[in-house]
Design goal:
Number of helices: 1
Radius of gyration: 41 Å
Order of helices and strands: EEEEEEEEEHEEEEEEEE
Structural class: mainly beta
Strand order of the largest sheet: 12-15-7-6-16
């Protein structure tokens, strides 16, 4: 089989400039053009971009934060105030920065007590039966605060003239909102009387058992 000549004395014409150059000084570009070494241009990297995958969408083995559960909020000493307006009894409730909304259902509870000490075992029902809540004592003839169905609240603080203040953070009474009030089914005797005692709380109608 024959072989190619070395081209020691040969010349070639550049496909780029059209000039004559020694054959042995010619090179082939990526597009097939035969050019002199002084004219050589490498392939533009942008013609062959590296593949880019999509952005990661999730963590491996994530542990998302569980949804928060509505819990009891401890109230201050004697947080309830009876108010009589137009023949109806209302009860103002002081709850510092309660962050509740008008129309929320809130149930009041007295101090927690252990009812069957030492009776709880491995059974979850036995554990739940260990604790109960004392009734909130009657004050100014208001006796319905222990209603197990709770109360629909309104924001702010109502007075005997029916004026509501402190319903928004722009009111002069408080910033942030620290009061809400309920309509009582009882008939207050005097109005303007504080009660409730210590360690009362406001929370959801139904409490959930939290394990762990």
């Amino acid at each position: 089989m024959g072989k190619y000549a070395a081209g020691k004395y040969a010349y070639a014409i550049s496909d780029r400039s059209g000039l004559r150059f020694p054959y042995n000084e010619m090179v082939r570009e990526w597009n097939g053009s035969l050019v002199h070494t002084s004219e050589y241009e490498a392939k533009q990297p942008q013609l062959e971009p590296k593949p880019v995958g999509s952005d990661a969408q999730a963590l491996y083995n994530p542990r998302p934060q569980p949804a928060s559960k509505t819990s009891l909020i401890l109230l201050s000493n004697n947080p309830f105030e009876s108010v009589i307006y137009s023949g109806t009894t209302y009860v103002n409730v002081f709850s510092l920065d309660h962050q509740r909304s008008a129309g929320d259902i809130v149930r009041f509870r007295g101090p927690p007590v252990v009812t069957t000490a030492g009776a709880g075992g491995a059974d979850e029902a036995d554990q739940r039966n260990l604790q109960a809540f004392i009734n909130i004592p009657t004050f100014d003839n208001v006796s319905d605060l222990n209603n197990a169905n709770g109360f629909t609240i309104a924001l702010g603080k109502i007075d005997a003239a029916g004026t509501v203040t402190g319903a928004t953070t722009t009111d002069s009474l408080t910033t942030p909102i620290n009061y809400f009030y309920i309509t009582s089914t009882s008939t207050a005797t005097t109005g303007g009387i504080f009660g409730g005692g210590d360690n009362t709380s406001a929370g959801p109608v139904t409490l959930e058992v939290v394990n762990g």
